[in-house]
Amino acid sequence: MAKGIAATGLINGDDVQYLWLPLAHVFGKVLTSGQIEVGHVTAVDGRVDKIIDNLPVVKPTYMAAVPRIFEKVYNGVAAKAKAGGAAKYKIFQWAAGVAREYGRVTQDNFRRTGTASAPFGLRTKHAVADKLVYAKIREAFGGNLRACISGSAALAPDIGFFFSGAGIHILEGYGLTESSAASFVNPGEAYRTGTVGKPVPGTEVRIADDGEILLRGPGIMQGYHNLPEKTAEVLEPDGWFHTGDIGELSADGYLRITDRKKDLIKTSGGKYIAPAEVEGQFKAICPYVSNILVHGADRNYCTALIALDEVAITAWAAENGMEGKPYAEIVAAPATVEMVDGYVKQLNEGLQRWQTIKKFRILPRDLDIEHGEITPSLKLKRPVVEREYKDLIEEMYEGTREA
Question: Which residue segments constitute the domains of the chain, with CATH numbers given?
Fold first, then answer.
């Protein structure tokens, strides 16, 4: 896999990597392997709460992260702008819109012509927004960042296009523990937000009749330890591995993940919903959210469990008559529920009727690794959260008809 990573040409001996991912995790291991193969400098600090402080010190040329990190940065910038008053927040919202448009247009033009160009009017707006907003964001990342690699979970396209337009190029990738983490990655300048790019050299891919992504190559595991029956369920005799993910390939080989087979939910009305898609859209809208879980399997409508970011919501509370209040009291306050409800309504406006969130509950604390609700790479563990907050979920469906 190290040889495959080097063959992509995305990293070189002059790079400086900032590595915060757990070194016992496959994502961290494969990044270390790539670094050893190429021979560049890596700065290691596994404390997630120190990332923002360390970036200006390390000044990395690239960094691998998970969507939650980019969401926190985006929400932090949005919250800071909002705290600066109505005028400053309006400037940020305008700049964010310009960034998304610029990201979409330049990527589309690069795909068609090989040049990341934009019309004169958009370039002019982008130049103004760059001085007011984007340059400060790039400086917060250390000022030398060539690109970020994002993996482990889906990145909301609105977040991806925002950073693209701001000059922070997020190359989404894809892989599993069983495939040694690095199976796909976006190819540098030709990256496409919303896809996980092309196969790492040496990896084969095909899409099964039911849409499942199948992989084959030297990075695929030999099997699960001492579990031959489980191995046989996912690994065919000719080496093809069943990922359990649903996706589609473009004509020129870019892969787009649509969802996990097992995470697609079907309402009692027979409608299929990809919860990760709805959750990603909400994270791009609400600057105070930390995690969200959409529920609706075998129900007649969708609900959501929402956890709020402690730093962001505490700052909001201080400006809304709750300064000094503890987190649990802030998230339970009617004003907080009303504020979140506004963002849920905004989300619903862009969804199909059967996707909309009819009810939600704000969790009394954020989800964390210690309670087993998220992984070390900050990925949501749905079954754990649904089991732990079963009473809240059932409360949202009281008195309703269920299939």
Answer: 1-260 (3.40.50.12780), 265-396 (3.30.300.30)
